[in-house]
Amino acid sequence: MEKTVMIIVDSKQEHPNQKPEVISFVTEGTYSKKDGRFCITYAESPVTGLDGTTTTLEVASDSVTLIRFGNVSSLMVFEKGRKHTSEYNTEYGVIEVGVTARKLNVNMDEHGGHFDIEYVLEVNNQVTSFTTLNVKVQ
Questions:
Q1: What is residue 102's predicted lDDT score, i.e. its pLDDT?
Q2: What whole-number distance in Å separates Cα of residue 60 and Cα of residue 26?
Q3: How confident is residue 100, by pLDDT bands cut at 50, 70 and 90?
Q4: 8 Å CB contact between 126 and 113
Q5: Tens-place pLDDT, residues 40-82
Q6: What pLDDT is attached to residue 90?
Q7: 3 state SS of 46
Q8: Average pLDDT value for the chain
């Protein structure tokens, strides 16, 4: 099962002592099911600052894995209450990133659905932002 879908992404990053950064966009992508996980894949756009990058979200009932490749390469795993660290490869170099999901709600099936994540982002073991990510597939 692979089909073309509309993907709606809303993200809000709150940084200490700064105005929140809000990004919202709608894009076309693919939706499939593989090994019991729903896979959402789309090309990033200039609005995200990740033009030239493809993002895949692998969604399970208790976790979401974000995989990016292209101009930016990264792997982030979101599980409620667990910290995961990984390398974030950019054209400027490699950064160590840690994510801890405070909230993770998944409501996906063969027809689409949505998931919501609230997480803390750390760069080189320093908290840099609190992020809310909402993704809807239709």
A1: 98
A2: 22
A3: very high
A4: no
A5: 999 998 888 888 899 999 999 999 999 999 988 889 999 999 9
A6: 75
A7: helix
A8: 94
| Full residue range of the structural domain in which residue 18 is found | 2-137
How far apart are alpha carbons 134 and 79 in whole angstroms?
15
Give the up-direction half-sphere exposure of residue 17: CA atoms within 13 A in the CB hemisphere.
Answer: 1
Residue whose pair of structure tokens reads 């908290």 in the numeric block: 127
What whole-number distance in Å separates Cα of residue 23 and Cα of residue 5? 20
Q: By the 8 A CB rule, do 41 and 54 touch?
A: yes
Q: Are strands 2-14 and 53-59 parallel, antiparallel or unpaired?
A: unpaired
Q: Tell me if 13 sits within 8 A of 127, measured CB to CB.
A: no
Phi, psi for 87 (deg, rounded to 5):
-100, 140
Q: What's the first-to-final CA gap in the chain, in angstroms?
A: 15
Q: Are 103 and 89 in contact (CB under 8 A)?
A: no
Q: Which two tokens stand for residue 60?
A: 């399970």
Choose among 63, 76, 67: nearest CA to 115: 63
Question: How many domains does the chain divide into?
Answer: 1
| Contact (Cβ atoms closer than 8 angstroms) between residue 100 and residue 82 | yes
Domain with residue 93: its CATH number is 2.40.128.20
